[in-house]
Amino acid sequence: MKKVSAIRSIKDISISRKLFLIVGTMAVLIMLELFTLWFAVHTLSAVRALVGAEGLWSKAEKDAVYTLNKYYRTHDEKDYNNFKKFMEVPLGDHKTRVELFKPDMNIDSARQGFIEGRVHPDDIEGMIKLLRRFHNISYLRNAINYWGQGDSIVSQLIPISEQIKEQINAPVPSQKILDSLLQRVDIINGDVTKLEDNFSFTLGEGSRWLEHLIMEILLCVALTVEITGLSFSILVSRSITKGLNEIIKTADKIKRGDPTVRATVFSKDEIGQVATSINQMAEQLILSNQELSHFAYIASHDLQEPLRKISVFTGLLETESKEVISEKGKMYMEKIIKSSLRMQQLIEDILQLSRLSTIPEQFSSVNLNNIIAQAVSDFEVKLTRSNARINSQELPIIEANALEMGQLFQNLFSNSIKFNNKSPEINISWEIINGSKMPEKYWATVSYKFTEANNRQYIEQEKFCRIYFKDNGIGFEEQYLERIFIIFQRLNSKNLYEGSGIGLAVCSKIVSNHHGSITATSIPDEGSTFIITLPVSQSNFNPKAALF
Predict the structure, then answer these.
(1) pTM, whole model, 2 decimals?
(2) For 124-141, how does the pLDDT look when each residue is reduced to its tens digit (9 = 90+)?
């Protein structure tokens, strides 16, 4: 429970504090790693110094025995003095050994003993700490025991050397006693050599054990640093990614006309605040849609009704007053009627666009051939008058909203007829494409199955039905390709063609409601091609009805 609470508290802090927490934790762990490394280097250095001190001890003992043997042969006091000088090394180490393991150790006395033992001053501190800290470890404990035994045996050389000197300086030296004393020296030297070998071997084993131990500690610390840093990074990254994916998924659904969806708030950090804002925005959008519906009612009744009356009464006035009204007055009457009719159409288009934003999905099997046939029937007079030709492949049956599909193709037919300086020719065809051929900039448009899973993988595995609606109208420049589906965008500034600038925006909204995309290509004075892409999973490819 405490672990879950700790994770929750980390999730709820701000992203900047999360980053500071990661950096701070990593800094502490790296300091720990550096301290461990420093300790390891100093400990191994102390082991190296102890091995070196043992070598000095052993060499000094051998030199002492050699000079004592030489003194036995030469009777030269200089050789005896050299013997005492070499003995200072084991005697100094003995002083340190005895002092080290006293309860009230005198650190200065211990240092002085190692100095007399010819240990470098820089190594003394580390050696003392090593012997004090690890003296209970079996390897070091055995080495210290060998050291103590060697001390006891080597210390016997002092009284023997004094007896040898006494015999040499006697008026009548006893060769028998001297030989016996020298034999004892040889025995001591042999015993010490064995202890030195045991000491060196044990210390070597201990050095390897300590090296392995330190390497394991360093490895554990390094793994702790890496795992902790990686865990923190994954925790923060997943928290941020999870929140962002939830926000993107929710925003995408809201964009597609579902303001009732809500983003799950996983934390109280900046990502959670954005998710909360998205939810508040959705609430406000619902209120706005309600106000829009209210406006639609007002517009449909309070705006259209007066306009209809204006049109009706203007028409009656024109009929009843044909002989009274001048030609100029008739022209004014005609302009009033056209303007009121145009205003009615504009209001109707706006209402239609607003309804597309509020009506929920109601899909059923729709035969696109029937949709095209109905659109042709609606425009029969204009098509006949303009000598239009319509060539259409047999189209599939799809799952769609029939009314919206009808409005989509009616708008496309209307534009193709309206923006044409010659006999209109419309060609309708379709094909199946793989998602991998979809331009990436349209992926978000068709990602109606968007989840936290990889959207790229979904798109590339999906199949789409692509419908081509091609005309031979006036076309438009490439610079307008991104603008034509925006409401009230009129590319003809000279008003040579009537229109509200809403038709293609309606088409875009209809296709978006069907989880698809609509794009266009165009060549000025040659025509335009509108490309409608819908997911195959919504289509049943059993085309029916006749060709046009």
Answers:
(1) 0.45
(2) 888 888 888 877 888 878
